[in-house]
Design brief:
2 strands; mainly alpha; globular; two-stranded antiparallel ribbon
Length: 360
């Protein structure tokens, strides 16, 4: 919205700063962070009054989690609100990629909100049917996948780019759409599975979003793509502003989610943010790199899949409890140990993901 101030510029004054994506990304970060600090406590107070007993705690979960009973959920509203406000304020609203990632984020956020509301109102952990959530999620992902192909250059539509390999695109044809759908749905649900400890999910999300934001900025600049041998996707640079909003809103939320959490993110936040990561990866043609940058989320999801399949086949468990962060809880790791070590792993994976920009 503020980009229109460039029309007041003669090319050498303050208003000219609004032409620069990096300047507006900084503005988006600060706006989202301020939003979190201003509205965090009032939102928590409202959620506490409305929800009463707070988020239901699983009976079969780690024993230490019973002490968290009464903590309100739906804290993702704070992140989503900060992200929406900062993006609309600082991004170019004539950019299709901005609206694409906002659409996916808000749509998945609504799914998560419905699930959180069902859990709180019924005071059980069932929520919305898993099959219904997946079905709606795949519909949203299908729209996003088609939308992304329309926005991308014709030579890249329905193609898959390979990391570490330059000037290579694999034509998936019609199969690109279901592939992109799996990326978006998988990212959303992987982040959702990771959100099980205070502060565990939000920092890896911010790290992954920041990394993808840098990639989006590079992919959207022809001078960078020429130098790095990347595929040029015009317009993706504006996504950096969106990811800056995730970082600012995420930090604002973490202030209240740090152990012991005053509020949980809930599915409202985890599905929205996970879907956003998937949408950015599809928009920038870096779907496979998301698997590296978001490797922690992949491991969390795989631990659940392996546990379920192995138990059905043998009646035994591979992990003491899934997702894998609960496995380490059962092994005696403290919650802060798990959270901080997982943050470190996320940062390492992000560095590896960024390295794919140059190693080609």
């Amino acid at each position: 919205m503020l980009y229109w101030l460039t029309e007041l510029s003669d090319g050498g004054d303050f208003f000219n700063l609004f032409r620069y994506i990096t300047f507006r990304a900084g503005g988006a970060f600060l706006t989202a962070l301020l939003f979190g600090f201003l509205f965090g406590r009032p939102l928590i107070n409202v959620l506490r009054r409305k929800q009463g007993k707070g988020q239901p705690i699983r009976d079969d979960g780690p024993e230490g989690h019973f002490a968290k009973a009464g903590t309100p959920t739906m804290g993702g509203l704070l992140i989503v609100g900060a992200l929406l406000t900062s993006t609309l304020l600082w991004a170019r609203l004539d950019n299709g990629f901005v609206w694409l990632v906002l659409f996916v984020t808000m749509a998945y956020g609504l799914i998560g909100f419905a699930d959180d509301y069902a859990k709180v109102s019924k005071q059980n952990t069932d929520g919305v049917s898993g099959k219904l959530r997946l079905a709606i999620g795949f519909v949203i992902a299908a729209i996003a996948a088609w939308w992304a192909t329309v926005l991308q250059p014709e030579a890249m539509q329905m193609h898959l780019a390979l990391p570490f390999v330059k000037d290579t695109l694999i034509n998936l044809g019609f199969f690109f759409v279901p592939f992109a759908m799996i990326v978006i749905v998988g990212a959303a649900n992987s982040v959702n599975l990771t959100d099980g400890l205070d502060g565990l999910a939000i920092m890896p999300v911010m790290i992954a979003a920041g990394t993808l934001g840098i990639i989006a900025y590079a992919v959207g600049r022809v001078d960078f793509t020429d130098y790095l041998d990347l595929h040029y996707v015009p317009g993706t640079g504006e996504i950096l502003i969106f990811t800056a909003g995730i970082a600012g809103g995420g930090l604002g939320f973490l202030w209240y989610n740090a152990p012991p959490a005053a509020v949980f993110m809930g599915d409202t936040g985890s599905l929205a943010l996970g879907g956003a990561l998937g949408a950015i990866a599809v928009a920038t043609k870096h779907e496979l790199v998301l698997g590296i940058v978001g490797g922690l989320f992949v491991v969390e999801a795989l631990s659940v899949i392996i546990q379920v399949l192995y138990f059905k086949r043998t009646g035994k468990r591979v992990f003491l409890m899934a997702p894998i962060h609960h496995h380490y809880e059962k092994k005696g790791w403290s919650e802060p140990q798990i959270v901080i070590r997982f943050w470190i792993i996320s940062l390492i994976l992000a560095m590896i993901g960024l390295a794919t920009l140059k190693i080609r």
